[in-house]
Each structure stands twice: as C-alpha cells, then as structure tokens.
C-alpha cells in the first residue's frame, strides 16, 4: 500500500499504480532486446 502523509501527495499513489500497471507484462527493452529481469516491479 502507498499511503500519502500529506495532502500535497494525495494523488501520488494512483499515479504510481498507473505507472506500474502500464509497465507490467513488458518483457523487452526500448531497443527490442528481451529483458533478463522482471519489468514493472517497484520495491521500497
């Protein structure tokens, strides 16, 4: 879970979720080379 600690960051959690969803399932780099790692993973 991403919990904003102030009102200014209120929209950051949905934005980060959207970025993650857009990245999931992509297995190639921008050059078209297959990745040797999982894409779209965010760990804090």
Automatic annotation (TrEMBL):
User: What biological processes does GO assign it?
Assistant: gluconeogenesis; glucose 6-phosphate metabolic process; glycolytic process
The domain of life is Eukaryota
Q: Does the keyword Secreted apply?
A: no
Question: Gene Ontology cellular component?
Answer: cytosol
> Pfam families in the record, alphabetically?
PGI (PF00342)
**Keywords, comma-separated and alphabetical:** Gluconeogenesis, Glycolysis, Isomerase
PROSITE patterns given for it? P_GLUCOSE_ISOMERASE_3 (PS51463)
The terms under GO molecular function for this entry are:
carbohydrate derivative binding; glucose-6-phosphate isomerase activity; monosaccharide binding
Keyword Isomerase part of the UniProt annotation: yes
The protein here is known as: Cytosolic phosphoglucose isomerase
Native source species? Davallia pectinata
């Amino acid at each position: 879970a991403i919990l904003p600690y102030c009102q200014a960051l209120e929209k950051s959690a949905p934005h980060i979720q959207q970025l993650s969803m857009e990245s999931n399932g992509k297995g190639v780099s921008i050059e078209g080379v297959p990745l040797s790692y999982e894409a779209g993973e965010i760990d804090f």
